[in-house]
Amino acid sequence: MRDLLCLNNVIVKEVGITILLLPPIRNVIGLKRNNNEKEVGKMEGSKLYVGNLKYSVNNDKLKELFAAYGEVKSVNIIEGKGFGFIEMSSPEEAKKAKDALNNTDFEDRPLKIDEARPPRPRSEYRRY
What we know:
Number of domains: 2
Radius of gyration: 21 Å
Oligomer: single chain
CATH architecture of the largest domain: 2-Layer Sandwich
CATH class of the largest domain: Alpha Beta
Shape: globular
CATH superfamily of the largest domain: RRM (RNA recognition motif) domain
Strand content: 25-35%
Helix content: 10-25%
Distance between the termini: 54 Å
Number of strands: 9
Mean pLDDT: 79
Number of helices: 3
CATH topology of the largest domain: Alpha-Beta Plaits
Largest sheet: 4 strands, antiparallel
Low-confidence stretches: none
């Protein structure tokens, strides 16, 4: 396999007769393109999404689990959905909790933890 061309950060490689277009290297390794992009691995907020919860998990159990990694400001489990949100007192504590607890078993299920995204704006009219 040999490089044929590097055009607009796209590397074109030849493999026999097939030509593969690869994404720009900076996207593959997670480098920032400009100052508007979020730095990889750096948390901006202190609110975490916690997924893959058993329906029997309550706020107190989740708060107790996350309290080992810092001060828990709030816990909000979405009833009947299997996920919830935890707000820690700082982004550093949130990152520490995420790194320690993501993909670990809690009540026989692997937790899925990520930084919470801001809620999407709702439209004025409901679709039925």
